[in-house]
Amino acid sequence: EAGVVQSPRYKIIEKKQPVAFWCNPISGHNTLYWYLQNLGQGPELLIRYENEEAVDDSQLPKDRFSAERLKGVDSTLKIQPAELGDSAVYLCASSGRANTEAFFGQGTRLTVV
Amino acid sequence: AQRVTQPEKLLSVFKGAPVELKCNYSYSGSPELFWYVQYSRQRLQLLLRHISRESIKGFTADLNKGETSFHLKKPFAQEEDSAMYYCALRGFGNEKLTFGTGTRLTIIP
Question: How close B9 gets to chain A, by Cα (Å)?
Answer without folding.
Answer: 8
